[in-house]
Amino acid sequence: MNGTVALIGFGEAGRTFAGAGHWGASAKAHDLLIGEAEMDAAIAQAGVAPCATLADALDGAPLVLSLVTADQAPLVAQEAAKLIAPGTLYCDMNSVAPQTKQEAARAIEAAGAHYVDVAVMAPVNPARLSVPLLLAGERAEQARTLLEALGFANTRIVGGEVGRASAIKMIRSVMVKGMEALTAECMLAAQQAGVLDEVLSSLDASEKPRPWEERADYNLDRMMIHGQRRAAEMEEVVKTLEGLGTGAAMTRGTVQRQRAIGALGLKQPETGLAGKIEQVNRKGGMQTA
């Protein structure tokens, strides 16, 4: 790629991308840990230019990739807005809420630069530059061209509104990270109760692979019809887990959600997932669930 790409944050993602793409001298990096041995060694190994300040990193860089921790993302954008040159393309690749990205976009755009919402949709390792990237924003097409020039091989534009890519990732995480948390809550309790093998066997026997739309349609159907009864059952599950001392945070949330959906009184669900969602929304399910 002609010109320079500035990496703000040189943790796992920055190091992985720079190394996989052999960016070397075409890239420069700024990180708060520059000056510490481990960080300096990583930057030297990648062959990118270290920048002690954010100003140095942004200077002359037509493309910026923000790859910091979620709590630092809005702060970095605000600071970058004070220093960034007009016309610079600022790709925010951090895992933050759509509202957070929209706030950051306002600061960057006010400085005359261009903000693009980029969602990294899988772990950067082992995918590296093949990791799926979703792009959103008015300059998403321009960003896609530059990212592909850097070697990114799996990019897709999902809209012109900043926050859309982030919304897809954040809402998907409800299921992905929620399943992880549920898994931990279930397995820790099963082991403590001495029934781990039986629980795993039961789950294997009941699991039937199906598309997520079909699974979601079925799950919502059950909650609409049987939510109240299931909430009562899950209260007993809470007692079980608390008695074992392994914790029931996720299960308590299940009680609340089941009871709220069941309390809507929708005993005759519409056909299809979209119809059921509309039914729940009409009844105020978004406010009560």
TrEMBL record:
Transmembrane segments: none annotated. Pfam families: DUF1932, NAD_binding_2. Residues 5-151 form the 6-phosphogluconate dehydrogenase NADP-binding domain. Residues 190-260 form the Phosphogluconate dehydrogenase NAD-binding putative C-terminal domain. Keywords: Oxidoreductase. The active site is at K169. This is 3-hydroxyisobutyrate dehydrogenase-like beta-hydroxyacid dehydrogenase. PANTHER family: CYTOKINE-LIKE NUCLEAR FACTOR N-PAC (PTHR43580:SF2), OXIDOREDUCTASE GLYR1-RELATED (PTHR43580). One of its GO terms (molecular function) is oxidoreductase activity. SUPFAM superfamilies: 6-phosphogluconate dehydrogenase C-terminal domain-like (SSF48179), NAD(P)-binding Rossmann-fold domains (SSF51735).
